[in-house]
Amino acid sequence: MEPLWHSIVQGLHGIGIHLDDRAAGSIAAAGTQGSGAMDLPNLVALAAALGWASGFRLYAVVFLVGAAGQAGWIALPPGLAVLQHPVVLIASGVLLGVEFFADKIPGVDSLWDLMQSVIRIPAGAALAAGALGADGATAATLAALLGGTLAATSQAAKTTTRAAINTSPEPFSNLLASLVEDGLVVGAVWLAVTHPFVFGGALLIALALMAVVTVTLFRFLRAAWRRLSVFLSGSPKAV
Fold first, then answer.
1. 3-class DSSP string for the chain
2. Which pTM does this prediction carry?
3. Residue 80 reports pLDDT greater than 70
4. Within 13 A of 178's CA, how many CA atoms are on the CB side?
5. What is the biggest distance separating any 2 CA atoms in the chain, rounded to whole angstroms?
6. Alpha carbon distance 46, 54 (integer Å)
7. Do 54 and 127 form a contact (C-beta atoms < 8 A)?
8. Are 147 and 54 a contacting pair, CB within 8 Å?
9. Is residue 3 over pLDDT 70?
10. How confident is the model at residue 36 (pLDDT cuts 50, 70, 90)?
11. How far is Cα 27 from Cα 153, in angstroms, rounded to an integer?
12. Burial status of residue 134 (CB atoms within 10 A of its CB: 0-12, 13-18, 19 or more)
């Protein structure tokens, strides 16, 4: 798997932030540092939290974890130490601000989710792999599979939920859903670091609920699309 720091540098280039050799080298050096003070349950919980939360708020995850590491609140594992580099913090902070407002505007949020769908899942896999990468390639691969799967699950639940909410003309439910997602991201990371076993149980419950919600809302959206198709075609019968 490509080193996390290299992926971040390439991502910064993709959004128009070009680094010289010294800055890129500084990020690479940051990516090799880390206290490694977290024990295995914390690391596994953190990997799962990063993957799951990335499906909701990727840039919030990157910024919050990096800021916590920079402030000394979390002893980041070596594979995630790059997140506390100032360049990464600035870039993720800017994108966090953009996402925060875009996610609260009906219609714009669904468009943003569509644009980010190709980024959140691999990023969730990379973050999870970074959390356990120091324990070997096998652990990193398993963590990447875990993180990518969790990111895909939360991304699917978020996308279907927002699409269903946007069928209503009032904007308040959309704003409330967005604020709840903001809280879930902060709560998931905090719980994973401070109470990993509690987080594990909460995650299993959340995954079960998300599966039910995703299937239910997908059926609702399919029925709504059929009704809209019938209305537009002027046919008295459903297709």
1. CCCHHHHHHHHHHHCCCCCCHHHHHHHHHHHCCCCCCCCHHHHHHHHHHHHHHHHHHHHHHHHHHHHHHHHCCCCCCHHHHHHHCHHHHHHHHHHHHHHHHHCCCCCHHHHHHHHHHHHHHHHHHHHHHHHHHHHCHHHHHHHHHHHHHHHHHHHHHHHHHHHHHCCCCCCHHHHHHHHHHHHHHHHHHHHHHHCHHHHHHHHHHHHHHHHHHHHHHHHHHHHHHHHHHHHHHCCCCCC
2. 0.74
3. yes
4. 22
5. 67
6. 12
7. yes
8. yes
9. no
10. very low
11. 31
12. middle
What is the Cα–Cα distance from 64 to 47, expressed in whole angstroms?
Answer: 14
The answer to whether the CB of 99 falls within 8 A of the CB of 156 is: no
Tokens of 87: 């360049």
Instruction: State the amino acid at position 186 in one-letter form.
Output: V
Q: Mean of the per-residue pLDDT values for the chain? A: 79
* CB contact at 8 A, 129 and 147: yes
